[in-house]
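User: Structure tokens for this complex, please. No commentary.
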Amino acid sequence: MLASAALQISSKITLSISLVVALAGAIATGAALEGQANEQRMAFTRTNTEALDLLALSVAPAVAAGHHYEVQATVDNMVTFKERFEGIDDFEVIDTNGRIVAAHDPRRFGEVLTDTKTRAQLREPMSTTERTAQHLVVTLPIRLEHPIGMLRAHIGLNRFNASVRRQQSGAALLLAITMLLIGVSLHFLHGRLVGKRLSALAQTAVTFGKGTLATRADITGSDEISELAGSFNKMASELEIYTHDLEHLVTERTAQLEEANVELERLATTDQLTGLCNRRHFDQSARRAIEVAQRNDRPLSVVLIDTDRFKSINDRFGHPAGDIILRDVARVLTENARKADLVARIGGEEFAVLMPEASEKLAAQGAERMRRALQDAKHPDAPDLGDEPVTASFGVAALDDSLNSLDQLLFASDSAMYKSKTDGRNRVTVASAIEGSA
Amino acid sequence: MKPWWLIASLSCALSLGCSPERTTSSAQVHPTDRLPVDGLSPSPLRFGSTALLGSTADRRAAPLVNYLAKKHRIPTTVVAAADYSDLLRLFRDKKLDMVMLSAMNCVKLSKKPPPITIATSTRKGSPTYLGYLVTLKEAKLNTIDSLENKRIAWVSPNSTSGYLFPRALLRHFNHDPDTFFAPNPRFGKTHRATLELLVNGEVDVAATAGSFVDPGPQRLVPDDVETTVVAKTARIPFDCVVLRPELQRDLGRKISDALLALNADHATREKLANTLGINGFVPYDADRYRDVEKLLETKTSKPTPSK
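Assistant:
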């Protein structure tokens, strides 16, 4: 569409130029032809008048003598051979009485002209030339010592005008041919030098615009269009580089953003100290798991773990040692949990394990395994804690009709864990075993 | 076809079409080109002539015969004919090799095959003459209208200037030549006799050729008789020169060239003007005889029988 628009514009320009050239040519030729026609008219009038003057002179003696036959003979010769009077349509030699002595048509012999004009011309003989639409009427006095008549010729202008028209038509035809050739040449040149190249340039722009950034205009030369194509190619190159850089930057930034999002997600769901899930993540995961288990009528248990005497460790060995202990606890719990279990740090020294597909009994077994592992665990990075091992109290609660929400499970497991604390720590207590539990 | 070839061809065609001067593909055909190459070459050449104005055919044709024989080595003899009709008959009967026919007879010649007409005679340089309607001055008949119901004398129905053209002249002025004049028109048969009818008062108006009225060697009206030329006809072409179609082409061309060359022989011209009444020749042009042809085709040109 762009290409055709470009062509239309340039075609209009070409057409306009052609029209202007044609108009200027027509005006100039018209003026020249009109001038030439005027000159020809003047020459035509002059030639005929001169010839008629000679004729008037030659017939004068015969007119004076009343020898109409001699006058007519002269006229006949003139009419017959038409050597110098080609265009004469009518011709009359009139005596002073207005009587036709001789005429182009001999049958007019003897005709007496009584019209006012002829009478006036006979009274005051003088040379006159009058132009009508079809004739040049030349009137000349016939004199010897005094006027003895007059000669009047009607010179037909049709043939002359036709000749002028032929010349003008010929010139107009030549002009038309010239204009046609100029128009065709301009069209050809336009097509070759402008239209085709502009179209190619426009097509390149269209292709480039559709995303083929490697496209370049293949236009050679040293004119404005070549310059335009060069500028376009330069712009396209710069635009391609810029776009490439921009894409690279966007990719990079997107990756960075994704990394940041992952990190953010990780930070949002992970406990920084232990690398375990944090409370928020644990809650979200536990709720979804509870919904799935309830919908599928599958078992699920939650184990709550609290590190025994952790405040004492912190107080005695400092927070860095406490942190080491907490990381060790987290590692042991993770190592001893099932793959499907989710281990989280939900408070200072509190941990929780979500155990999908685990009944209370199975969860209790798992908790016991973890308790023992923790009890036996070494803490190489921690200061010497003496003979007292790091232990934890476990509370287990399983999903059932009475414990059917996370809060209830946490509450129940917390109660069981508290029971383990009160019973002497480092043990596992299941919620269902607590007296008075629901 | 490539567009530029089309344009070039068009331009070429147009420029040729616009060319102010066009050349014909073949040269103009000369009448004698239609003669056979191996045709007859009679010696002497038989030239037909009529007696006129009291002069014999021999005497009238003598200047022309001498001119052809002496200046162009074309031996020629004269065959006398009683009148133009007889002349035409002799020519048709192949008893003449060359003949000068009046305009009317020239047109009457068969068109198939076209006659070998080589020239038209001229007088004072003009290939045409006029017919007159003439009256005696004393009669004071000066206009055509004044001739109504007057007695007319024609030459003969076979006369161009004494019958055919004057009748056409009357029709031109909206008069019926058969009813305009008094009944029982006269036919003088010759121009001289026709003018005698006028001079003798037997008719009021006569139709004749201008040269027999105008002052000059051919004038047939006595000098003491004053006449009035009431009207003049349209131009009538002079006699045409026709060759026998069996003549040899070279001989025909030689005769034609000789006749046209006569225009430069002033002595012969002068002699001819006093005998044949013509003194030169121009190439034959059929257009000159168109009016005669048209008038002959006009049925109304037939005469009303004289009672």
